[in-house]
Design goal:
Two copies of one chain form a homodimer. By secondary structure, the first copy, chain A, is an alpha/beta fold. Chain A has three domains: 5-137 and 305-325, Rossmann fold (3-Layer(aba) Sandwich); 141-301, Dihydrodipicolinate Reductase, domain 2 (2-Layer Sandwich), CATH 3.30.360.10; 344-428, Alpha-Beta Plaits (2-Layer Sandwich), CATH 3.30.70. In chain A, 36% of the residues lie in helices and 27% in strands. Chain A has helices at 15-26, 28-35, 67-70, 86-97, 107-124, 141-147, 162-173, 178-187, 196-199, 202-216, 235-243, 305-325, 363-373, 402-414, and strands at 5-11, 38-45, 62-63, 77-80, 101-104, 128-129, 153-159, 226-227, 246-257, 260-271, 283-290, 294-301, 348-358, 378-385, 390-397, 400-401, 418-428. In chain A, strands 7, 8, 9, 10, 11, 12, 13, 14, 15, 16 and 17 form an eleven-stranded mixed sheet that branches. A six-stranded parallel sheet of chain A has the order 3-2-1-4-5-6, with helices on both faces. In chain A, helix 5 links the parallel strand 5 (101-104) and strand 6. The longest helix of chain A is centred in the last third of the chain and has 21 residues, at 305-325. Chain A is elongated, with a radius of gyration of 24 Å. The N and C termini of chain A lie far apart (51 Å). Chains A and B meet through helix 1, helix 2, helix 6, strand 11 and strand 12 of A and helix 1, helix 2, helix 6, strand 11 and strand 12 of B. Strand 12 of chain A pairs antiparallel with strand 12 (294-301) of chain B, so a sheet runs across the interface.
Chain lengths: 431, 431
């Protein structure tokens, strides 16, 4: 690095990379006053140099050759915003070997190879920052790792997928069914043509795995996360949730109890009084409970070029500060524990159950009897008359272990008076 | 500092100091794993050594002699949680002279002497951290200074006084009048016997001055803040706010426009859809708008021993990390600009106006005429019949400069059909 200038190499110049370039250009003078050094965009790896781009980007810094960034001795900090897993991993390892600090916004990569990346960064004594990889622009990684580092974190619970929150907001406030809301989300660019990763919870699972790893100081991988998506939620569930004083949200949830960790992504009913309940549209929020701080929440845009670039530039400034002070590698991997991950069968929550039953006397009694025998106690019951001789019953249980609930449900599904189980949704955030 | 241990000296062992001691004792092993060093409480300045205290505190470390902490070569970090301004200032300056980093949770001190303290810390090349001085446990100083440091911050708007938020919550959701709600707050320990500093906005003003200084990189002092309290808010205002789709909150507001800063504390109507609207009881939240990140919000407990101690311990850990790496003084004072502060007359907002008028034809027309002549345009009007021949009219203006509104109001107060102006409340957060 020069006396006055820290040189940045971008891997990727898409939505986020373009946002980073634009912030460095537009807010460069302010950043120099804050940091004491100018951040100069000195190279950008792209697929196609000839592609039409924003006029503020100097064509001379574009390259299709990774080594122009990774092995360039002039470049101090490499910013990986290209996406993908294996290629990005290879490039970052090469950057570390060349003693470059790295900033990434790639959650798939951090969720898949976080451990190896942190070890490699530590070995090279450089920084690896990844604030942009979870919840876009919302400051959450640094607050967890630094501001709340005096706490034992007990719970992290977040709306960490904007697509599904947009869909559920449309279903809740505009009466849409799932498919209609998904169509709208796709039209507005909030959902991909193939929406699987969002609506089935895979994206949220990668994020909650990263958050859980930091919160509980123990590696949690994507494969450790129990997942259910929102495709089965319908307007009946939304309406019953409202009657119960709740809204339906897709949450990433991680809790530590007795030294063990549970981590899951699924739709939830949460009370309208809970701070997460009012997080609407494509916004994200992460609710954190610590033993000293109590309940906190971090809210903002969880995706998009500029919000994510905001997090990336914050990380670049931190990395540049460490470079200039000669103290890269200040905070390495914080996963010093190896806590057991609980299976979903061991998890205890409240449940919302929607059952289609024959509308005749004694049905509720026989269902309640099965629950009683399985140690599932009921908190509330809503009964709705439906077409023909079928009725819809909604039950909310007290807290019960999942295995007990499943046992009870398998018996109930076999009852002659029960048509089918319409939906089972966990209820969270009531404490 | 020893090889393995960083020694902490507390100035004050009240609610926050006691919380810090308890966290260091209870979470000491976890903190050691995160930091690499044990944080040892090595001294605590108290008024009365004989006072009954929590059993976990070693009596041998208590002292009534400031120099046992400030001039003690064994102590690495001084934690000022004693309150007061001048004595705390003197002690911190002495700590700096002895090359000790300082953590403080004293907003009065930071608001009054922030500039001198940062200069002294910079000169001594030690750290001064103050996360606990604003909004208790909520991470906000570090997110602003680091995570969002790529942004130009445009607006900071916060519920930063728990007492008034508790009172307004009781008025909004339980139909209390101000005095009843204040009585309850006092009974529950949320309000002081003399509630002036809270209900008149002085406490919030000190906090928004600190936040504005950081957000806009320009010193904003307590005296720069325009203040109005909540004592004039009554149940009519709460009810009309509801009809307008709003709630009433006491907000600290700081905005930068065209290189100039406005900073104020007063009650506001904000839309129920705004993220701040659902912040209830004694909780605090700070809404931040940046040019890259967009809208973000930070929520949690803004006061209390453990939440504030959470922030203090986070700062101690950062200071200890810097000590161990030999990089104290990484981020000094960030007030490198000197932006003009706008007077309240120059500020433009929407206004809610409640007027008591004679209930006769043409009244509204004559009032509307005055507003029209003063370039105040109206967004909505609610009219309520009242006792006798008086009626209550509620108007909401479009955005208008305060000086224009005041001109119009002084004419309206002189109209023979107008009894008096019941209340004037600004409307915020509608963009």
């Amino acid at each position: 690095m020069g006396n006055d200038t820290v040189k940045i190499g971008l891997l990727g110049l898409g939505t986020v990379g373009g946002g980073v370039a634009e912030i460095l250009a537009g807010n460069g003078d302010e950043i120099k006053k804050r940091l004491g050094h100018r951040l100069q965009l000195a190279g950008a790896l792209v697929r196609d140099i000839g592609k039409q781009r924003d006029g503020s980007i100097d064509k001379d810094i574009l390259t299709t050759e990774p080594s122009d960034i990774l092995e360039n001795p002039d470049i101090d900090i490499v910013v990986e915003v290209m996406g993908s897993i294996e290629t990005a991993y290879e490039y970052i390892i090469r950057a570390f070997k060349n003693k470059k600090s790295v900033v990434t916004a790639n959650k798939d990569l951090v969720a898949a190879h976080g451990k190896e990346l942190f070890e490699a960064a530590e070995k090279a004594n450089v920084d690896l920052f990844f604030e942009g990889s979870v919840a876009g622009g919302i400051p959450i990684i640094r607050p967890l790792k630094e501001c709340l580092s005096g706490n034992r974190i007990q719970e992290v619970m977040g709306i960490i997928n904007g697509t599904t929150n947009y869909i559920l907001t449309k279903m809740t406030y505009e009466g849409r069914e799932f498919q209609q809301a998904l169509d709208e989300a796709q039209k507005r660019g909030y959902a991909e043509a193939d929406p699987t990763a969002d609506v089935e919870g895979h994206d949220a699972a990668r994020k909650i795995a990263i958050l859980a790893s930091i919160a509980f100081n123990s590696r949690v991988a994507y494969d450790d996360v129990y997942m259910e998506g929102i495709t089965k939620i319908n307007s009946h569930d939304i309406q019953y949730a409202r009657e119960l004083g709740c809204v339906v949200k897709l949450l990433g949830i991680a809790k530590e109890t007795d030294g063990e960790v549970e981590v899951r992504v699924h739709p939830c009913l949460i009370s309208k009084e809970h701070p997460l309940a009012s997080v609407k549209d494509e916004y994200n929020a992460i609710f954190v409970k610590g033993d000293a701080v109590g309940k906190t929440m971090f809210y903002g845009k969880g995706a998009g070029g500029f919000p994510t670039a905001s997090a990336v530039v914050g990380d670049i400034i931190s990395a540049a500060r460490n470079l200039s002070l000669g103290t890269t590698g200040r905070i390495g991997c914080t996963c010093y524990d190896n806590k057991r991950i609980r299976g979903i069968q061991e998890v205890a929550t409240k449940y919302y159950l929607r059952l289609n039953v024959k509308d005749r006397p004694g049905v509720l009694a026989s269902i309640a009897g099965v629950f009683g025998n399985s140690n599932v106690s009921l908190e509330s019951v809503i009964q709705k008359r439906m077409k023909g001789e079928m009725a819809e019953i909604v039950l909310v249980t007290h807290e019960v272990q999942e295995s007990n609930l499943r046992d009870a449900l398998s018996i109930i599904e076999g009852l002659s008076v029960v048509g089918d189980v319409g939906n089972v949704i966990r209820v969270e955030g009531s404490d």
